[in-house]
Design goal:
Chain lengths: ~475, ~550
């Protein structure tokens, strides 16, 4: 396996050819990564040519190259966004001082934890999605799935690069452990809850890429502010790829809604399920489920870790430069907390509320796509609007973990919640219906499964009926 | 650091499994499972939330009670499993916000009490023979891991997340306060450099590495955890001590206020407070009637056996003084009763203890209570005045004292030694109080064994058994002046001086925990780097970061 980590094999802009130490580390890690990919990557399709984009530079234009490639031969590369000259720390106690090119010892453990937690989500989602190829609604979607998969693989590479380059032996061990944890395995699960949730069909896939990848976006935005410059540069580049993942989610949901709306117009008085599409209330339930699961990923509403990360300049707010004040020291954040079984407004020190601040930005951003789905329904003349549930609904982390709260955000008794659960979250019957609907894959170029509308356009100027995956 | 104004609310140490709030004691045949499930808003005092199975004194009082009851009430139990009912979290240690709100004196007493509880857990395994297993079904951090280390066998679940950790140094700028550092290297014999690395990584160590480093004994994948636990229970069961039933119920004690309202009286113990002089008189009386000489008679008397009840009462009085009367700096120890009855009771217990678990438990209990006396950070003066005759186990109070005064008068008080003074009631250093007293002359201790007659003040003084023996003309003044002088010294200096003088001789895990670890911890607890305006403990959980004065001493 010598010479594997060379310039051609691993596209990079980190001067890998001259960094012997890093080369050696990655040479050892790469075979393990490929083993992991074969074992836990997409089931099947490893020999097919797939029309994929590969990152080849960090230039704003022309950073990606599109061509057919077999997934195991994908050139997972290491790219950092260009350095910002004279960049200074943008928030926290060390505001205005030069950013760090090396890890300061006192922040080593916390930074490693942040990087490992982010890094762990990347292979996790590949594992969660590994069986979806067998039920894809079109070659276009199949290709998008694999595009997301290989890029999550590249994001793993990006985090592993940081671990190998800056964290010594611990970093190498953590990089190894990233390949050993398994989504959903009780003995060695992925670190965060949502990344252990089963994802068995394409409705969940679109919801995941819409809601959960969007959590990724906000985590990356917060890490892009980091005083640890290599982390900042790495995450800034990852964001360019992440945009596509959310595009897959948003357009996927939109196309399902479009198809259902079409059928509803044709058969206004029928249950859409009779016509083989997904009824809007069921879509709403999956939305409730994945949205609440993704909200958990931001962590507790009041968090001393979050305060510590902010104070020490490790993790900022999304778009820190849009805030006027960057110490966040003598400021407060008003939030609803639970006191004696009642919701009470409480002022929390702003630094301790940083998870909630990031969640705010996420909630706002999540609403944008929902507005598009609703606009489509309005234009189709259908009297139904999607609504994001209250952020207190169905939470497993934070102040409202396990607290029975309605989608509107009101506190309920456990019995009242249980009685309405099936109206809010997917039931076994819903799952069975979706599985039934999606049991057959569509591998014919240009053809779409019955329950989803075709996309408006293809990839990189290719037509929708382009052979995105060569099935022979 | 703001001290809680509720610090002065009296604390009750009464507990019973039927009223536990934070633990469930489940008995299945010969296995007892003690599962922690701390009620978040069930703190002993207002102002903090007991999140993530963190504990305060109230939680520990229940734990101590459960350990005590297993000894006496459940002889059928061979294995004690300590675990948690919370998913993915075993215990996260003493509650930081509780510590932050507490006065220094309370923190110190809290740590001392929890330390004693953990030593009782070890005593349960070592001497009662109930094997202890800690089933870490989730993360054990700080005091949570220290509790685990007080068990003989630690099993950690392997789920990619659960870890053991001592995050005090990196996270809070203090030390693990319940023997953690000492047990790491002294009990578990973790290599000191690995212990050093472990104690500075806040997130701790998981799975296989925790086993490799000796931090836990087994690491079992989550899906096989229960089965693996069962196998460990089977193994431990074989090594447990056989004890036949029935158990002896520990009936509640019945303290009442003394008539003057300035004290508490139990059946064999009376506590009289003198707030103005900052002293308390602690009187322990001998048995009023002859004590049982057979195992069956002893069992019949149960918890009202003098040696059990009197020392339970003494224990209660000490806790009352430690927690609820912190300004009382000097305890005047007094004993009374018929020496022959005491010596007979002692002899019967010693004889029965070799074959009867109940007699043995009574002895072990006396040992623990006397250790608690040694470890109390108050001046102890023993006063043997008019009409007093001290013998056997009661004489241990005299030897526990920092000084003793015995009236020298015709027909005055006597002191009589017995077998209890020569082995069954060791101190934390592993020696008897007499061995510690005569560290320079072990032969003298042997000679004293043969000195079985009652000793007058003059004789007791010659034998080195008491400190001062004023005659009846000087007595009143000498004793008064000694007490007044003592009560006027710096309480801090006295605490340090007494603790340094009481435990001569060899070091043990216990003396290291109380003498070294606790002393360092108490020092750190006072330092600006911990509790100053920007100290680590002060700013924990606030948006600020600590700022240290980096000068080392
Ligand atoms: Fe990603
Ligand atoms: Fe993504």
């Amino acid at each position: 396996m010598s010479n594997i980590a060379t310039n051609e094999k691993i596209p990079n802009n980190v001067n890998l050819a001259e960094d012997r130490r890093l080369q050696r580390a990655l040479e050892q890690w790469q075979p393990s990564f490929l083993d992991w990919w074969r074992e836990m990557g997409p089931e099947g399709f490893q020999l097919q040519d797939i029309f994929l984009r590969t990152a080849i530079s960090a230039d704003t234009d022309g950073w990606a190259h599109f061509d057919y490639v077999r997934m195991p031969e994908y050139r997972w590369g290491i790219f950092l966004a260009d350095p910002v000259p004279n960049r200074t720390i943008g928030f926290g106690d060390d505001y205005g001082k030069p950013v760090w090119q090396e890890v300061p010892g006192e922040h080593r453990n916390a930074l490693r934890r942040l990087i490992v937690t982010q890094g762990d989500t990347e292979p996790a989602s590949v594992e969660q999605q590994r069986f979806l190829g067998k039920t894809c609604p079109s070659l276009y979607d199949l290709r998008n799935l694999f595009q997301v998969n290989v890029e999550e693989g590249r994001h793993l590479w990006a985090m592993v690069y940081l671990l190998h380059s800056y964290f010594g032996r611990d970093g190498r061990e953590e990089a190894e452990a990233l390949l050993q944890r398994r989504s959903g395995n009780p003995d060695n699960p992925r670190i965060l809850g949502a990344f252990n949730a089963p994802m068995q069909h394409w409705l969940s896939f679109y919801m995941f890429t819409y809601f959960t990848d969007r959590d990724g976006k906000y985590q990356l935005l917060a890490l892009a502010e980091s005083s640890f410059d290599p982390l900042s540069r790495t995450t800034r580049f990852m964001l360019t790829e992440e945009a596509h993942h959310m595009f897959v989610g948003e357009t996927g949901i939109l196309r399902i809604v479009e198809r259902t709306a079409e059928i509803m117009k044709q058969h206004p008085s029928d249950d859409p399920r009779r016509h083989g599409v997904i009824d809007l209330p069921t879509i709403q339930k999956y939305m409730n489920y994945w949205y609440s699961l993704s909200l958990d990923l931001f962590g507790g509403e009041v968090s001393s870790n979050a305060a510590h990360y902010f104070a020490s300049g490790l993790k900022g707010r999304a778009h820190e430069d849009r805030f006027e004040e960057h110490s966040a020291l003598d400021a407060y954040y008003a939030m609803d907390v639970l006191e004696d079984g009642k919701l009470t407004r409480e002022e929390v020190a702003l630094r301790n509320a940083m998870n909630e601040v990031l969640r705010d930005a996420y909630v706002e951003d999540s609403q944008r796509g929902v507005d598009k789905f609703n606009k489509l329904l309005t234009e189709a003349g259908i009297d139904f609007q999607f609504k994001l549930p209250s952020r207190r609904f169905n939470r497993q982390v934070g102040l409202f973990a396990g607290v029975p709260v309605s989608v509107e955000g009101e506190l309920l008794t456990q019995a009242a919640w249980d009685a309405r659960r099936d109206a809010w979250l997917p039931t076994e019957a819903d799952e069975a219906y979706i599985h039934h609907l999606m049991s057959q894959p569509v591998y014919e170029p240009g053809k779409m499964a019955h329950w989803i509308a075709p996309p408006k356009r293809g990839i990189k100027g290719r037509p929708v009926d382009f052979e995105y995956v060569r099935m022979d | 650091m703001a001290e809680s104004s509720t610090d002065s609310l009296p604390i009750s140490f009464d507990a019973h499994p039927s009223t536990y709030r934070h633990w469930t004691l489940d008995l299945q045949g010969d296995v007892a499972t003690l599962a922690m499930n701390v009620v978040e808003d069930g703190g002993l005092r207002p102002g903090y939330v007991l999140k993530l199975n963190s504990y305060d004194l109230g939680v520990d009082i229940e734990l101590a009670d459960a350990i005590q009851r297993l000894r006496f009430e459940h002889p059928e139990v061979k294995v004690l499993v300590i675990t948690s009912e919370k998913d993915k979290i075993f215990c996260s240690g003493a509650n930081i916000y509780m510590l932050g709100r507490s006065s220094h004196a309370f923190k110190v007493n809290f740590c001392k009490y929890t330390n004693e509880t953990r030593l009782y857990l070890e005593d349960l395994a070592d001497h009662t023979g109930i094997k202890t297993l800690c089933a870490l079904n989730g993360t054990a951090s700080g005091g949570g891991y220290e509790l685990a280390m007080a068990c003989e066998h630690i099993v950690l679940t392997e789920d990619g997340n659960s870890a053991v950790s001592l995050p005090e140094v990196p996270l809070l700028g203090v030390l693990p306060g319940t023997g953690g550092l000492t047990r790491l290297v002294d009990k578990r014999k973790v290599r000191r450099d690995l212990a050093d690395a472990f104690s500075t990584v806040a997130e701790g160590v998981r799975g296989k590495r925790a086993v490799e480093w000796g931090l836990v004994d087994e690491s079992i994948p989550r899906s096989r955890f229960q089965a693996g636990l069962q196998a460990s229970v089977e193994r431990l069961r074989g090594a447990a001590t056989e004890r036949s039933g029935p158990g002896v119920a520990l009936t509640p004690l019945t303290p009442r206020r003394t008539e003057d309202g300035h004290g508490v009286a139990w059946e064999h113990v009376t506590l009289r407070l003198d707030e103005a002089r900052r002293t308390a008189e602690l009187e322990l009386r001998g048995p009023r009637a002859a004590q049982p000489e057979t195992a069956s008679a002893l069992r019949e008397l149960g918890a009202s056996t003098w040696a059990l009840q009197a020392f339970r009462e003494l224990d209660a009085a000490m806790l009352e003084l430690r927690f609820n009367h912190q300004h009382i700096g000097l305890w005047i120890l007094k004993v009374s009763g018929d020496p022959a009855t005491v010596l007979a009771a002692d002899a019967a217990l010693l004889k029965l203890a070799s074959s009867d678990w109940f007699a043995k438990e009574i002895l072990l209990h006396m040992k623990r209570v006397l250790k608690r006396l040694d470890l109390s950070a108050r001046t102890l003066f023993a006063i043997l005045g008019e009409g007093v005759a001290v013998a056997g186990s009661l004489a241990e109070l005299v030897f526990a004292a920092d000084r003793s005064f015995m009236l020298d008068a015709e027909g005055g008080p006597t002191l009589q030694l017995g077998p209890m003074n020569f082995g069954p009631l060791p101190m934390s250093n592993g020696l008897t109080r007499l061995q510690t007293r005569f560290l320079n002359d072990p032969a003298h201790v042997e000679a004293l064994r043969r000195l079985t007659a009652p000793l007058s003040a003059g004789e007791a003084l010659r034998q080195g058994l008491v400190t001062f023996t004023p005659d009846d003309i000087d007595w009143e003044d000498e004793v008064r002046i000694a007490i007044e002088e003592r009560a006027a010294f710096s309480p801090d200096a006295l605490t340090g001086m007494e603790a340094s003088l009481r435990f001569a001789g060899p070091e043990t895990l216990e003396t290291k925990i109380f003498g070294r670890l606790s002393a360092w911890q108490n020092w750190i607890f006072q330092r600006p780097n911990a509790v100053g305006e920007r100290g680590a403990l002060t700013v924990y959980g606030t948006p600020e970061r600590p700022s240290f004065d980096y000068r080392r001493t």
